[in-house]
What we know:
Number of helices of chain A: 16
Strand content of chain B: under 5%
CATH class of the largest domain in chain A: Mainly Alpha
Structural class of chain B: mainly alpha
Number of domains of chain B: 1
Number of domains of chain A: 2
CATH topology of the largest domain in chain A: MetI-like fold
Largest sheet of chain B: 2 strands, antiparallel
CATH architecture of the largest domain in chain A: Orthogonal Bundle
Number of strands of chain A: 0
Oligomer: heterodimer
Strand content of chain A: under 5%
CATH class of chain B: Mainly Alpha
Order of helices and strands of chain B: HEEHHHHHHHHHHHH
CATH superfamily of chain B: MetI-like
Amino acid sequence: xxxxxxxxxxxxxxxxxxxxxxxxxxxxxxxxxxxxxxxxxxxxxxxxxxxxxxxxxxxxxxxxxxxxxxxxxxxxxxxxxxxxxxxxxxxxxxxxxxxxxxxxxxxxxxxxxxxxxxxxxxxxxxxxxxxxxxxxxxxxxxxxxxxxxxxxxxxxxxxxxxxxxxxxxxxxxxxxxxxxxxxxxxxxxxxxxxxxxxxxxxxxxxxxxxxxxxxxxxxxxxxxxxxxxxxxxxxxxxxxxxxxxxxxxxxxxxxxxxxxxxxxxxxxxxxxxxxxxxxxxxx
Amino acid sequence: xxxxxxxxxxxxxxxxxxxxxxxxxxxxxxxxxxxxxxxxxxxxxxxxxxxxxxxxxxxxxxxxxxxxxxxxxxxxxxxxxxxxxxxxxxxxxxxxxxxxxxxxxxxxxxxxxxxxxxxxxxxxxxxxxxxxxxxxxxxxxxxxxxxxxxxxxxxxxxxxxxxxxxxxxxxxxxxxxxxxxxxxxxxxxxxxxxxxxxxxxxxxxxxxxxxxxxxxxxxxxxxxxxxxxxxxxxxxxxxxxxxxxxxxxxxxxxxxxxxxxxxxxxxxxxxxxxxxxxxxxxxxxxxx
Lengths: 283, 288
């Protein structure tokens, strides 16, 4: 931004091109929002109206779908399981990734750059390569059907180390050096100086972790194969594929309930969601 | 001395976890390809040499799945990044409402794939609002049962996924546009360059590294599509495998047919295809 006045008036003056730009963006926004509106609208509609007039506004508002998901889908258990996974992964991964990022950003040790280079190479290896052998390993360990099969492998990740390292490199070296001269222990410097200063980046990484785990389907499908361990995503698919036309109210109530927590957090912390993607490149 | 020591300790969790869940499976995946192996009867493991590799290279369903995913991703990558570029360029240009559009365009990224396939399954069904609108506009003569068609599932899924993912391209490209020195536009405007010319000759070349990043990541992620087709078409990708993707086929071999050695081989073959495309992109992208 910060353009001179003459340019900014040229950039923003009324033209048909500008009208077209606004129109395109507005139509785009409507297309993006419509599925959300459709979902929420149908979640409060009486069952027969969902089938016969899915696109019209509800004639009356009913919350029987929301009541139904507790009775017929056991959504409380699904929420609990999804939360156990998402919270454990978020705490472990954010903490351990930050620890590694601090070492890579601020502690000079022999081989550091080589290790970081190797980490970056591992990002490029497609995950499919690990799918089958990891399953065989988990099966032999007896971890299949247990939360730890998803939590432990996600306890630290290179992409998050990378994001946090970028941010921590921006913290002045003098702060860290001064603490070291005062005899501060590396673990204390990490906890007292680095973590508080890296809070915005930590929030971004925590959100990415939470969203990734909350929305994950493939992992729980592979490893959590008993109904008492099902997550929201698995439960929803089982529920929607049961009988077509059946449970319509509950399906829309459930999709709304699964999506809304993230949307609400997003409205309060939008920058933290989008910042992770703002300055990416391979350079 | 002691400081160095802590550096190693702090990266130790990653080293241990990567050794256990990265390097070990990596080696194991090669080992498994030489065996006929199943969970049901692990004691009947038989050495088959390169048998799984030969079978994979000659398997018409694996090639079908590769064709399907490349067909899908060609449309998806153009559409998703094209929409991201268009919306970023427009939001960069307009004076009002930038914050609103930014909030809205990123929202689909929050939806889970299962929620996405549930909503979209209804919206795109023959009686759903999208097809009714197209019929009313005269663009469709009658509603289409697209999930049963041979050619329609992949483009329709590409459109659905573009709705969900274009917000990532939008955010990355918009940040790229704001990082361009405003004086470049200033000079161009004084020289009488139109809005389109400024976009074509200033914005687009400067977005090179962002576009390159998006294309590389899209190829790596996109070729591994699973959840969408699993949820909408089932484990065989539809009656005629019209929506079979490589990862779906690998899943089917491993978990429905208990054929672990073969599934592992197909996983390696797919990883090789992705690696090849990534190497080509880097070679081609560096010239740009």
